[in-house]
Amino acid sequence: MSDTSSATPQPAKRRGVARERLLAAASRRFYADGVAATGIDVITAEAGVAKMSLYNNFSSKADLVLAYLDARHGEWLELYRRRLEGVRDGRGGVLAVFDAYADHAAFAYERGFRGCGLLNAAAELPAGDEGRTVVRRHKEEVEALLAGHVGELLPGRPEEARAVAEHLAFLLEGAMARAGLEGTAGRVERARAMASDLLERL
What we know:
By secondary structure, the protein is an all-alpha fold. It contains nine helices and no strands.
């Protein structure tokens, strides 16, 4: 009996490819045009798949939005991990967070850099929406990463480390908001310099 498993695409594999294409298309459209302005038909057309394929992979548009938010944060985490390579101290760890934000801003977006994709999406979602909870959780994770790095610089002073991390998180997110309005990562780079100066004074 001949083995045709390698020649015939398996249903699970086909679904996996379709899911990746749908998520990639949704990511481009949600960031460039906004969540509310992007319809299912636009996403499936750009992904080159049938509408039924979307509902075979995501239970609803809201489910697709949640997947987009997680993917966007995962994308940033990968940039952060790359920036951590070779970092030897807490100061370098903090600056790696800022550098990863700048790296994300430098992507070749279809309509230019529009700021933090997570906050942009959250701004369109109603209070109580699960997507806003996802965004808040991701932002809390970034602040926790900052707190961990600052803690290396302030051993035995956890409350002070958390306060400094909160300060840095506000600096970073504020810089991203301004950078998004201006369409360039310049504000994030300036915020990095401010963070570096702050860390030198600890």
